Amino acid sequence: MSPVRAAGWIRNALLLPAVAGLLVRFTVQDRVPWLDVAYYALPLPVIAGLLLVAGVLSLGLGQKSPSFACFLFAGGLVLLWMRTDVAWNRCETARPDFKVLEWNTAHGGTGWPGIVTAIRRQKADPVGLVEADAHLPSPEEFWKEQFPEYSVSAPGRGLVLLIKGDILRIGLQEFGEKSRLASAETSLGGEPLRVVLVDLEANPLSRRKRLLEQVEAVAAVPFSGPTLVL
């Protein structure tokens, strides 16, 4: 195959997922099983990148009009993405003394001593840890020993909650294929606080909407104080 023909094939191969991604994104989005994979795998920046490369290939083939169209659409998608999906917010809290930490510790791959030191440095009020039980015979006892100033609960499946207050009640729920959450009723500074610590599966074929609906259902249960979802 000649280089020119190969470039044309590559360009068309890039345009196909770009067009499919645009059709899914601006029609059914993630409401249809299996098509939702395309919705999540092809966000606007990725589609813009595909169109940009296709435009460069078209320019190399001497096809100026298709090249200009690809560049124009790529630029338009980047602008749309910046207006709809990108937000720059400066958050100011009424409680500057209140600090939250949530961390996926990746099964302690970098070493538990360093992780403990990093957590201690943050001085957060509630600390939610995910994948925090690997190679620990008793995760709850380990974290209690490291942070005696916190109330600690490890309900299972790698979830660990530490709070500078009291953990009154905590429950573990498993759903989907490998998703789980722990919903805890706590008292912090004498005030009620519900903490929902979540770890969702990374399988790209999982229905993200159904998983998030499960989290939303737990967080929406009436409670006497605010709810913090980690």
Question: Could you explain the architecture of this structure?
Answer:
There is one protein chain. 43% of the residues lie in helices and 23% in strands. It is built from seven helices and eight strands, in the order ααααβαβαβββββαβ. The protein has a four-stranded mixed β-sheet with strand order 1-2-4-3, with helices on one face. Helix 1 packs across helix 2, helix 1 packs antiparallel against helix 3 and helix 3 (44-60) packs antiparallel against helix 4. The protein is elongated and about 70 Å long. The model has no long low-confidence stretch (mean pLDDT 91).
**Major sheet attributes:** 4 strands, mixed
The beta-strand count equals: 8
Order of helices and strands: HHHHEHEHEEEEEHE
- Helix percentage range: 40-55%
What would the average pLDDT be, to the nearest integer?
Answer: 91
The 3D shape can be described as elongated
Instruction: Count up the helices.
Output: 7
Poorly predicted regions are none
- The Cα radius of gyration reads 24 Å
Strand order of the largest sheet: 1-2-4-3
Give the strand content: 15-25%
Summary, kept brief:
This protein has helices at residues 3-25, 35-41, 44-60, 64-84, 112-122, 139-146, 208-219; strands at 101-104, 126-130, 151-156, 159-163, 166-175, 179-188, 191-199, 227-229. With 230 residues, the chain is of the alpha/beta class.
